[in-house]
Amino acid sequence: MNPDAVPPTETVRPDWAAIDRLPTADLLRLMNAEDRTVPATVAGQLARIAAVVDAAAARMARGGRLVYAGAGTAGRLGVLDAAECPPTFGTDPGLVVGLIAGGRSAVTEAAEGAEDRTDLAEADVAALALTPDDTLVGVSASGRTPYALAAVGAARAAGALTVGLACNRGSALVAAAELGIEVEVGPEVLAGSTRLKAGTAQKLVLNMLSTAVMIRLGRTYGNLMVDLRATNVKLRERARRIVAEATGANAPTVDRALTATDGRTKDAVLLLLADVDAPTAALLLTASAGRLRDALELARRQAPLPGPDPLEPGRA
To answer: Mind listing the pLDDT tens digit for each residue in 67-120?
Structure first.
């Protein structure tokens, strides 16, 4: 992309110049029609997204981290995705990290000037002490935000895998990274407001990245969140449903299993399916790097299980 050219995400569509005069229902129909174009555009990048997932998962299996870096909406979406991983997948807070230009306060308060501060990006990345097992994803709708570019440059210098996620083709961000994802959403209904289609595209891609990486790492069992942290009433009920779905056990049996395993959903599933006690379930999971399917197979090799895996063959 010509560095002096206006990115497509910033351009003005003349045929939308009078949207302020449209009836509300027509305005919403226009926005909805544009939003519907985003998933199809993301679909065109699935091969690139898959390459990032596999590369990041391989590194995280060796102890690496997944880091997002961006400014404004892009940075907030990265912080949001990172924050959702511990309760959903039982990860340590430091495993998936969101860096945003201007720091944590920029999540709730605009810090527009911070996106130009390459020194802040370099300092934020340096504080993480990245290694070759880490992956950093720079996120920018335009693909030329200085903070995201500097973060990618600093991560690459540290030997980490770098990924550029942009919403324009031929961006400086993708050129600076080893792997690139370019979701071309085109002009926004409100010219330049990249919290709209560009933000939706970034949210879809980040959802895919973190979820698919965690599935590859064995943080799920089929499509069940067996590593969730049951820290409130809603999540404790969800844990009960997950254990019941995975094992076919009745409610009292599920509750006893969760009590025996101190509420650890994955352990409770293994306890019931492998017919072992809680300490043995914990040992099997440790020996299997936390992968429930592998722990079940290990238990099968050690002693016959009472029945077939209820998620085989069609759930995983």
So the answer is: 999 999 999 999 999 999 999 999 999 999 999 999 999 898 887 788 889 999
* 182 tagged catalytic: no
Indicate yes or no: pTM above 0.85. Answer: yes
Q: Is residue 245 annotated as a catalytic residue, yes or no?
A: no
User: Is 188 or 109 the better-scoring residue by pLDDT?
Assistant: 188
Which member of 10, 84, 184, 297 is catalytic? 84
The catalytic position among 34, 115, 188, 245 is: 115
Tell me the sheet residues that pair with 96.
Answer: 66
Q: What is the separation of C-alpha 156 from the centre of its chain, rounded to a whole number of angstroms?
A: 21
Decide the pairing of beta strands 135-140 and 179-182. Answer: unpaired
As a whole number, the mean pLDDT across the chain is 93
Beta-strand pair 161-166/179-182:
parallel
Neighbour count for residue 50 (Cβ, 10 Å)? 12
- Of the candidates 231, 218, 295, 297, the one whose C-alpha atom is nearest the C-alpha of residue 263 is 231
Instruction: Report d(CA 191, CA 10) in Å as an integer.
Output: 6
